[in-house]
Amino acid sequence: MQITVNRIVLTVEQGDITAWNGEMIVNASNSGLYGGGGVDGAIHRAGGPRIAEECAEIRCRQGGILPGEAALTSAGLLHFRGVIHTVGPIWKGGSAGEAVVLSRCYQSSLDLACAQGVQSLAFPNISTGIYNFPKELACRTALDSVIQYVRGKDPAELTLRRIDFVCFEQDNAELYRAELEAYS
Ligand code: AR6
């Protein structure tokens, strides 16, 4: 399933983001940038210790990152140009501004990717695992945020040509396909 917005192709894939074929991936990390479980664990395992070393450097320099922010490291042993680490919100029932913070994760990751001249970028389903954000709202928030971002930019400012949503779980992949279809 794919749609084109402002000349950028948005697609949905199901699988492991560490095996994705493209230039840069986004990680769903934590504020301390300590490698954890879920997609974060998979990226650190596959990328080797270099990623954790660079996360530690960021931690020393600026004390980690806040929910909604993003930071860049190399990809270690992985074949990507880099990994963008962002921190999603922990779901607390929905009245703590969680959706706004989740939206910022996508925006700040896209800002960083464009600043690096990245042409293809993959997002996992940020916050929908250990941080317990409801999947349907997370899917709508992710797609709305990315589509608004892409629509709001002058094509000359956007280096990106392809943005993939890589869903590990079947139910998320189905949600994303249905939601993307509704946009087309
Ligand atoms: N590739 C793509 N997606 C994956 C993979 C993978 N290899 N593995 C899991 N997912 P989570 P969060 C999906 O828990 O909710 C970590 O400990 C997973 O099915 O990874 O943002 C961090 O250090 C789910 O849909 O991230 C933080 O402490 C999605 O990735 C905390 O978890 C996000 O689930 C962040 O929690």
How do the strands and helices of this protein lay out in sequence?
Blueprint: E1 2-5, E2 8-14, E3 24-28, H1 38-47, H2 49-62, E4 70-73, E5 82-86, H3 98-115, E6 120-123, H4 135-151, E7 162-167, H5 170-183
Parallel strand pairs: 2-7, 3-5, 3-6, 6-7
Antiparallel strand pairs: 1-2, 4-5
Helical proportion, percent range: 25-40%
Order of helices and strands: EEEHHEEHEHEH
Shape annotation: globular
Mean pLDDT across all residues, rounded? 97
Q: How do the strands line up in the largest sheet?
A: 1-2-7-6-3-5-4
Summary?
With 184 residues, the protein is an alpha/beta fold. It is built from five helices and seven strands. Helix 3 packs across helix 4 and helix 4 packs across helix 5.
Describe this structure in words.
- The termini are close together.
- The chain is built from five helices and seven strands; from the N terminus they run βββααββαβαβα.
- The chain is an alpha/beta fold and 184 residues long.
- The model has no long low-confidence stretch (mean pLDDT 97).
- It has one domain: 3-Layer(aba) Sandwich (Leucine Aminopeptidase, subunit E, domain 1), CATH 3.40.220.
- It binds ligand AR6.
Descriptive tags:
184 residues; Leucine Aminopeptidase, subunit E, domain 1; binds ligand AR6; alpha/beta; 7 strands
